[in-house]
Amino acid sequence: MQINITKAQQLKPLPDDSGLGFGTLFTDYMLNMDYDPENRWHNPRIEPYGPIQMDPSTMVLHYGQAIFEGLKAFRTESGDIRLFRPKDNIRRFNTSARALCIPELDEQFVLKAIKKLIRLEQRWVPKAAGTSLYIRPTVIAMDPFLGVRASHTYRYFVILSPVGAYYAEGFNPVKIWVTRDHVRAVRGGLGEAKTPANYAASLYAGEEAHRNSYTQVLWLDGVEQKYIEEVGSMNIFFVIDDEIVTPALNGSILPGITRDSVIALGKAWNMRVSEKKIAIDEVMAAHENGKLQEIFGSGTAAVISPVGELKYGDKVIRIGNGGVGPVADKLFKAITDIQYGKSEDLFGWVEKI
Ligand SMILES: Cc1ncc(COP(=O)(O)O)c(C=O)c1O
Questions:
Q1: CA–centroid distance, residue 38 to ligand 1 (Å)
Q2: How many whole angstroms separate alpha carbon 265 and alpha carbon 174?
Q3: Local confidence pLDDT in tens for the 353 residues of the chain
Q4: Residue 282: which residues within 8 A CB-CB, separation 6 or more?
Q5: Measured from the CA of 257, which atom of ligand 1 is nearest?
Q6: Ligand 1 center to residue 14 CA distance, Å?
Q7: CA of 70 to the centre of ligand 1 (A)
Q8: Residue whose CA is at the smallest distance from ligand 1 atom 1
Q9: Relative to the CA of 260, which ligand 1 atom is closest?
Q10: How far is the centre of ligand 1, averaged over its atoms, from the C-alpha of 256 (Å)?
């Protein structure tokens, strides 16, 4: 399929790299593509960034049939632009599509189209340390219809947003709140898909954590409320007795690409790494026995997010010395060095633009 480009009348001024936040500024262009049962996915096009006109009855607005992804483009010191594991994001996008009854996309074509968009928008990939261009592919259900069923028509779009360094003021360990009143996802539900419903389900507990001066929620499983699943919108890792441990994927956990990278690096460093069911009680016991060395989250936004404090019921525990543990520190450096081209890409994770 040919990707046509409609040029913008006027380009926006570039923001100052040093003042970038997250998700507030968008570039000049977006990628669009439509689906209907007769033409399948068709009419891929790059157009000036702008609003999507839709009927108030459009299905996505009522029943949330939508999926999205989040990945980043990085600028290396020599000025090249590279994507981190984009094929994995596109594969996960199709896994989410299947879970939401959305027609799958051609993975090779989508990668080509995203690269073309970024090539056109390369001036927007920031240069300052720790900054990147965030890429947000999305599909929304477009039928103007109020019946509950899967839509017949869809819009695919990709928007781009230059984002600042997550740790502009240095690595900042977070305080996490284990919720016993709310669950993010349940077995047989949508937890392993990247779909708005999971984020809507997370808001109430997130607000409650913030009101209590905690940064993120630690989610327990939706069946027994006993086993650890994720932290905020990140996967979670523990270092217990020198072993890296993370919850095994069980259908209600998002299979993070950073999670997979952490596991691969830990194994490459000859550390013991295991994916298994972990009860919150085991973590509390490991802390009491002096064996809980580190807790950290992993995700595209922060890469690695060390946890300094955890509250479960009326118990509050401090992890390590409340600062950044050596494993979290080494992983953050190793992953960001690959992303910014400062170290060799031994795993084939990097895709040049
Ligand atoms: C719910 C949730 N869990 C985990 C992750 C981490 O996934 P990844 O490492 O692919 O960014 C994300 C997204 O970033 C997420 O939204």
A1: 34
A2: 23
A3: 899 999 999 999 999 998 999 999 999 999 999 999 999 999 999 999 999 999 999 999 999 999 999 999 999 999 999 999 999 999 999 999 999 999 999 999 999 999 999 999 999 999 999 999 999 999 999 999 999 999 999 999 999 999 998 887 778 899 999 999 999 999 899 999 999 999 999 999 999 999 999 999 999 999 999 999 999 999 999 999 999 999 999 999 999 999 999 999 999 999 999 999 999 999 999 999 999 999 999 999 999 999 999 999 999 999 988 789 999 999 999 999 999 999 999 999 999 99
A4: none
A5: 10
A6: 28
A7: 8
A8: 233
A9: 9
A10: 5
Mutate to test the pocket of ligand 1, among 195, 235, 298 (most ligand atoms within 8 A of CB): 235
| Predicted TM-score (pTM) of this structure | 0.97
Q: CA dist 130 to 104, 165, 201, 210, Å?
A: 33, 4, 30, 26
User: Hunting for tokens 């929304």 — which residue is that?
Assistant: 140
DSSP state of 123: G
Amino acid occupying residue 252: S
The DSSP string of 44-103 is EEEEE--PPP--TTBHHHHH--EEE--EEEEE-TTS-EEEESHHHHHHHHHHHHHHTTPP
- The secondary structure element, H or E, covering residue 260 is helix 257-268
- The residues lining ligand 1, judged by C-beta closer than 6 Å to any ligand atom, are 70, 230, 233-235, 254, 256-259, 298-300
Q: What's the CA gap between 218 and 232, in Å, rounded?
A: 6
Distance 299 CA to ligand 1 centre (A): 5
